[in-house]
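User: two proteins, same treatment. go.

Assistant:
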Amino acid sequence: MRVLRDQEVTFREATADDLAEIVRLLADDPLGATRETPGDDIPEAYFTAFAAIEKDPNNAVIVAEIDGRIAGTLQLTFIPGLTYTGGERAQIEGVRVAAEARGHGVGQAIIGWAIERARERGCRVVQLTTDRQRPDAIRFYQKMGFRPSHMGMKYPLT
């Protein structure tokens, strides 16, 4: 896929038919390469997770397309909460842009699309996390207006 900055990026909810390409994107970075299993015959666990996301009205996997080809993806989750006076928040996860599309505005477009969906829904905040080992991603998110405000912590179960 040759990507030019002036090409139109469209967005849609992913389907199960998109999963192999989405997993390929998730695996296409040093951290993802250690935890994802790309290929034509991906593990059933991806389909199980996708089915759960698809059933949940507060969750969606989104793909960005250029000329009908997937150029990026993210998961958008709406989380009800008591903070922010009972306000809802939007969580962005699993953001990836195809290597050949990086640097051409696809990332800005898909993040901007997600922020607009959160705004339309009345969310009070949009949040995301990124690994400290991804300095380029951190710079990108800061350029988009995200600010480091909390220290994220994880407790691995596997």
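Protein 2:
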Amino acid sequence: MSATLDLSHEPVTGVFHGKIGMWLFLASEIMFFSGFFAAFIILRNANLETFMHGAHELNWMLATFNTAVLIGSSLTMALSILNLERGDTAKFRTFLFITILCGFTFLIVKYFEYTAKFHHGITPGTNSFFGLYFLMTGFHGMHVVAGIIPMWWMLARSFTKGGYKDVHRVEILGLYWHFVDLVWIFLFPVMYLIFPTKG
């Protein structure tokens, strides 16, 4: 007589499988962004004057505001998870909606930053600094959009008859969102604070 061990509903690690998958994905993203930062440092050291003049064209006040917005969104994301775990659907919706608003606010501010640059004839082809500026902040912006989309879906599902009760998926999305915030916390000083910039 033989018996088969079924662990399909209980991860061997004690951690939800999706969370492990997200950690692996984020590890690959860290390596990806590390390449950007390495390129920035190398090109900066080779073109110090160009990077200094480029940084002078950035608006550190808007970037500081955006940093505060993303840090706040990490808090509201954590609170949305906490309230879903407690079964408080109303607060889950409220904090998730605020997180979404923060994401949109960040993108709107970046839109105004970009349009101001284009208005002054500054494009990714202007020099190596702005090539990396648009590449790195643009790629980060795509990650913000990628986080907002599933948030909207979860929020919409919470208004259906069955509601939304999958805490694990919200936690996984929370990990992703915290990563997006963390990347910006590194981008902000590298782009805006290494050299004095104008307000």
